[in-house]
Amino acid sequence: VDFQKIIAVATKRGIFQPAFDAYGGLAGFLDYGPVGVRMRRRILEVWRKHYVINAGCLELDGALIGPEALFQASGHLGEFDDALVDCNECGKQFRADHLVENGEDMSRTDLAKAITNVVCPNCSSTLSEMSAFNLMFSTSVGAGKGTLGYLRPETAQSIFLAFPWLLRQNRGKLPFAGAQIGRSFRNEISPRQGPLRMREFTQMEVEHFFLPTNEPALSSELKNTKINLLPANGKERQITIGEAFDS
Ligand SMILES: [Zn+2]
Fold first, then answer.
1. CA distances in angstroms from 192 to 34, 54, 145, 157, 202, listed in the order given
2. How far is the CA of 108 from the centre of ligand 1 (A)?
3. Residues with CB under 5 A from ligand 1 (ion)
4. 195: closest CA among 12, 31, 25, 22?
5. Which partner from 17, 64, 131, 144 sits 20 to 30 angstroms from 171, CA to CA?
6. How far is the CA of 19 from the centre of ligand 1 (A)?
7. From the CA of 96, how far away is ligand 1's center (Å)?
8. How far, in Å, from the CA of 170 to the mean position of ligand 1?
9. What domains, with CATH codes, occur in the chain?
10. What is the 3-state secondary structure (H, E, C) of 118-141?
């Protein structure tokens, strides 16, 4: 796919454009134009009607900035990171899992071993040792030195955090589902052009809560419904929802 063409058409038709173009641009951020806003809103409305309203979910709109202690407790500060290598000659930076075959499926230890056999794709020089880069945007909350905070990297966490509150809203009864549509932020090392792998993006998410002893059963109609899944290896496969639950 030629993304330059897609971006040119999207810009011309008022769908979206790369943000901050007048100041040299900032990769991973988009502005939605008059047509794009309507398209986006329509998609969100259809999704919300089907998955939130008709399904009777409890809806949440969580805060976008969270305190450091939260992300320490959830493990985002220790684990929500990408493995990076630098070129010792030209200084370019790469995601290690992009330079190794099947790198995205490897453990960090295996990846660190495999990357020692790889040279810089740009200038063929040697690469640095692998280091970790956290994907969360940090910010300072309040005046002076302030308190360290982070922009949320996902919407799921707000729903989990609000679980006791939502449970009370549901009169203490399980099962129920919490839903949220909202923005999330990830400081991606290599954002793609156009609306793929953005640094600021919208997520639509539902989390179901039920007792393990009272697991909701799938109807036979749902069980036998065929869906196409696209696993991380990029090879699309068709399976039934029942098979997906069992695998
Ligand atoms: Zn290089």
1. 23, 35, 34, 25, 16
2. 22
3. 87, 89-90, 120, 122-123, 125
4. 31
5. 64
6. 29
7. 14
8. 57
9. 1-63+152-214 (3.30.930.10), 81-134 (3.30.40.230), 217-247 (no CATH)
10. CCCCCCCCCECCCEEEECCCEEEE
88 Cα: distance to centroid of ligand 1 (angstroms):
7
Q: Residue 71 corresponds to which amino acid? A: F
Tokens coding 70:
């939260």
In this structure, the strands spanning 200-209 and 176-185 are: antiparallel
Q: CA-CA distance, 17 to 189, in Å (whole number)?
A: 20
**Looking at residue 206, what DSSP letter applies?**
E
